[in-house]
Amino acid sequence: MKCGSQYINQKKEICPVVESIYTLGNKWSLVITYNLMKSPKRFNELKACIPGISSKVLTQNLYELQKNGIIGKKTIPDQPEKIEYVLTEKGEDLRNLMREMRTWGEKWLMPPEQQPADSCRSTDQRLEEIDENGIKQHVNNKWDKYPVPFAVVARTDK
Fold first, then answer.
1. Domains in the chain, please, with CATH?
2. Do 8 and 18 touch, CB atoms closer than 8 A?
3. DSSP, res 130
4. Taking the model in full, what pTM does it have?
């Protein structure tokens, strides 16, 4: 039985799920992307949002996400010049995936009596506020009553 890239290379067929996992499946890619969903961020802002990530690993992941067309760089004219990382159209298209991950996490990972992390709630609201046309859409969920500051932390215990 062949799987993964062996299957793709030998059969000359592409599985969208496998390719998506190869593109987004490392420990940090989705955490970085999720943090950029609220707003563009500079390198140090991103690093501050993601405890446990080293500058080297963040740099490598930003490079890969850029290479794969998920994020881009925006230059802000200033002295000195500033660079922000932003989601591309391809990266923005991951919002539905993030919603589904939130739903799965609510069902399978959250103890019923525990509230989600503050950092997660405001981003979840943001995922639902803007649709693909940039029009505000709001879907009630159990976290709506918790307006909180934004930051997403990665689990470092796995």
1. 4-129 (1.10.10.10)
2. yes
3. B
4. 0.69
What contacts 103, CB < 8 A, 6 or more positions away?
A: none
User: What angle do helix axes 29-36 and 55-67 make, rounded to 10 degrees?
Assistant: 80
Within 13 Å of residue 119, how many CA atoms lie on the same side as its CB?
14
The pair of three-digit structure tokens given for residue 84, joined into one six-digit string: 């922000």
> What integer pLDDT is reported at residue 151 of this predicted model?
39
Lowest mean pLDDT among 75-79, 91-95, 136-140: 136-140
Token match 């000359």: residue? 12
For 84, phi and psi rounded to 5 degrees?
Answer: -115, 150
> What is the Cα–Cα distance from 105 to 101, expressed in whole angstroms?
6
